[in-house]
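Appendix B, record 7
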Amino acid sequence: MTLFWISTVVLVLVAIALLAITLSSKKANNDEQLRDELNKAFYKDRLSELEVENEEGLVENQQDLIDDLKQSLLDDIPQQKVQKDNVNISPMAILVPSVALVVILTYGMYMHFGGATKVKNWQEVTANLPELSKKLMAGSAEPMTEDEMQDLTLALRTRLHYQKDDATGWLLLGRIALANRDVTTATDAMEKAYRLTPNDDDVKLGYAQALMMSQDEMDNNRARGLLTSLIQEEYVDLRVFSLLAFDAFEREDFPGAIRYWSIMQKMIGPEDSRYEMLSRSIESAKARMGEPIVEGKSIAVTISLDPEVRVPQDAALIVSVHPADGSPMPVAASRYPLGTFPRTVVLDDNNSMMEGRKLSSLDGLIVRVRIDSDGNVATRDGDWFGESQPAKLGDTVEVSINQQY
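Structure tokens (predicted):
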């Protein structure tokens, strides 16, 4: 700020110096001198003419004419002196009020239109960035006010303008935008952070959160891919399963949502205050399904799609559970909309196919998944499918669709 005011003083002094130079270099008025020389030249010429006229006898009284000519020359001198007295104004009389006017106009207009108060506030907020960031990251009992969030956003934007490679700053800006439901800012900030540190789990999670808020299905698919990669890490953040559960619920993949919420319950334990909230979410998903899931007697199937598989848009997903001996007749099966991959579905006794034989009666099982391309379960030509390894009830089974009939 001090440098700014010094620069304004320098500029004002330069303007005053230019004004002073202009006034001091005023062109001298030489009109009197020029007129005197002209009068003298006229007087001499007229004398010469009178001599010639006298010699020719054209002038009767030469001396009278000479006296009149001299008088005319003398009459012109006082008038020039009066005019000189009238225009003799001191340069200081102009310079002093001009300097005052320049100073008053310069600083007066800046104070009125220049936003000096806002600039000062902006600099104070920028200087307070470390303290605001610490308060946000610490998650203190006293939440940040709306004004503090706005100040933090302003300070972060200022810092990131000069330090574009600050991944932590972009991540922090993205989190603030997520809290304010500003999808565009959140996505842009998280994307910049992800490009700078693509292997950072916190950045991946933040970017996935921002993409999940988008209305674009491609963004949602990319978010699911990021979340799936996070599940494969040695430590998985609880928020990863929360996002996957919410996404599955929104897509009406209620078994998948229940599966993720159940995993979250196992991670936090019954003593956690969030346990009951997750139980209510699970009950809500069960209600949306129409029938309850039998606890402890279900099988969760995580399905992935091989990159080479090309699936028709109107295809359906058929998941069937068979005895471990590989019997072609399924004990339980369910049909789902194709949706997106990877995805998780859950089958239980409600999906049983045969009277008197339920899924819960199986000691061992295998899961087969098929993409039905024509809507007829009896035909399989050209359909893609996959099969799991032998498993037991309660396990999480993984199936990759990578074969074709």
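Remarks on this record: Residues 282 and 377 are 31 Å apart (CA to CA). The first strand starts at residue 299 and ends at 305.
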